[in-house]
Amino acid sequence: MDATADADLAELPWGAVWGQQAAVEVLQAAASDSQSMTHAWLITGPPGSGRSTLAYAFAAALIAEPGDEQTMRQVLARTHPDLTALRTEGVIISIKDARALVERSYFGPSLGRHRVIVMEDADRMAERTSNVLLKALEEPPERTVWILCAPSDADLLPTIRSRVRTLRLREPDVAEVARLIARRTGVDIATAEQSARHAQRHIGMAQRLATDAAARARRDATLRGALAVRGVGDAVEVAGRIVQAATDDAKALTAERDEAERASLLHTLGIAPGSPVPPAVRSQLTALEDDQKRRATRSLRDGIDRVLTDLQSMFRDVVVLQFGRDDDLVNCELEPELRSLAAAWTTERTLVVLDRVSETRRNLDQNVAPTLALESMLVTVASGRTL
Question: Residue 324: left (phi > 0), alpha (psi -120 to 50), or beta?
Fold first, then answer.
């Protein structure tokens, strides 16, 4: 991106959007031309590509008058009354949540130019939930705009895809992400490059890896553990370690937030720290704890999915080496071990393992027990055969 483009994107509301100049230009044109405006959008791109950041920037441009920075900042902070946003804390988006969005979409804007409904993680809708949205997407009120976000348009039903305009984000290369991470965090360029490569250009994950040596060590230990699996016993042990590490990671990410939410609720209810909770308000505390449990479940499954993504990258590297290439490896640090595996396995066996990793990811989306799913997958790694 040239200096002129950087200067353009530095202006509100697009300042936080990185590496998506073409998409920004499309949305800027749409926001400024109400006659040709599409009222239902789907922004797609891989995790970490900035789908949600772009969605809220677009929402700010739609709601605020040009040059109204105060309103733009309100929208970007998710506090403007004409913005309704949903980012599920659970494994799926519930029908109840979808119906609430649809109901909200039929209100006209109260202060801004448009009412905007942003649905992050739209791929987490089951078919019944998707059907709730159909009429609202097909015939939205005149000044209501829907913005859905998902990794791919294939993650949504054809009936949803036919009612939205799809905007696909570009994937930055490793060097671009590395430069961004180095600039944001101050880490050396070598660490930033390794983190961007291991995160497969996922900006948020690359930033975490770059700034968390323990996370980098856990990733390395997990991949080396999978390479060492030779039988059922090894598969059970490594699967247990992966689930435990993901559980510990999920607890670390959510514990501080959970405690702050509990303390805030108790304070709002007028209950002093350490005092017993009166029966009359226990239901509110129980509801909060239920929400936190759902969030913890999602955090755990997201953590395991990241492990599976790392394993996919490793076995993908093996296939690359089996086809005589070594210029595009994700896990360069493991190249000797991966070359040994590439020589020992047939390409067909590696592809079977890759298919099983993908199948395990799908199974986890269907609430299969994580430990059993990982054990079964790692037995395939050890034997080259599915159970």
Answer: left
